[in-house]
Amino acid sequence: MAGIPASNIEPALGELKALLGDRLSTTAAVREQHGRDESSWHGVPPDAVAMAQSTEEVSEIARICTRYRIPMIPFGTATSVEGHIHALEGGISIDLNALNEIARISPEDMDCTVQAGVTRNQLNAYLRDSGLFFPVDPGADASLGGMAATRASGTNAVRYRTMRENVIGLTVVMADGQIIKTGTRARKSSAGYDLTHLFVGSEGTLGFITEVTLRLHPVQESIMAASCTFETVHNAVEAVIETIQAGVPIARIELLDALQIRAVNRVEKTDYPEQPHLFLEFHGTRSGVREQIVIVESLVLDHEGSNFAWAENQEERSRLWHARHNAYPSSLQLRPGSRALITDVCVPISCLADCIDESLNDIAASRIPITLLGHVGDGNFHLLILIDPDDADERAEAESINHRLVKRAIAMGGTCTGEHGIGRGKREYLIEEHGAAVSVMREIKRALDPHNLMNPGKIFLQES
To answer: What does each C-alpha distance from 179 to 64, 108, 168, 169 come to in angstroms?
Structure first.
């Protein structure tokens, strides 16, 4: 099984079966499901799937796996696009979906504690009558444990920031099964190392997150959404840059190019003009939102934007953002049977126009359908490169486009991944981006996971 000696895997499976009963599965269908995500690679299934129901069970699973030197891979909603759940060295997939309880809501402190399997939509539905919401919105209904593990962000990050700023404490199971809690609910602390933010973004390579304490935000008095069109992507980006530089506290500002709009129209039966679009949302008091709208509309008009369409009530806003959130599955329908190699660079806002302009040249020169969209208020954008997953030449071309884009972004002071994480897909760029600091990361990994059992093969190209 996946290169693990039978003398290790068989007794480990025996102990796990005694612990979990029918919640340990070695059937092919379950294993395949737990080795496949939204990335463009073929899945890599684990040897078995352990369906945990508590932090204590995760701890006991880790103790057994460590005793027999069996790799462990955390599993949430499988919405990753960088192969985070692929069992590259075999092992046990630990499914955390049954850890789905909302443990505590504190409206007075505007925070909550949830188990790792709770999804963002589940949490916001629970909060609906509280006057609070959780703003981090990656599009997919991802689990909050997975979002913390990958340091996710999304459409609201321009105002409400990312998981890094919204996670204030964690419960983590270490490689040896030890359970630790990080952080406090206090608004600030100077006590010791910031372990919370060591684990946020660690992608399951240092410990498995089983519980998350999150910062909540008040629902604003007034919310207004809008879309508008531009003659060129460049004009749209220039309008975004000036909006951010003007200090407008806009909640969302999303870019979709003309091909992405065509895909949305086909699937969602919408009738947006097939031109580059910005989707925008404004939060605040009624007067504050009006002031934001006046400023942004003026900046948009200065850059030849037009076709403003406003959405004020909940139904209209939901329709607009549903179209944006479904951009990824919509784009796949431009080429049925394709998989998307999704890029994820982020650059300083002053470099955004140049980075996108150079990327558009790559798009124009390619024979592969490519859409462009992004959270451009953060300087973060994606190319969705629609490849035939079985065509080696297309994959090579897509990876070449991604390679040039990443090199471009890093040269501009940016990053190879704004929100998706490293996984197995961006490992080669980590040293270029962080240099000697990667050796410090490796030392941390070795100290916390000396046998390299926690999601091995992710983040680092080689671990020794």
So the answer is: 15, 28, 17, 13
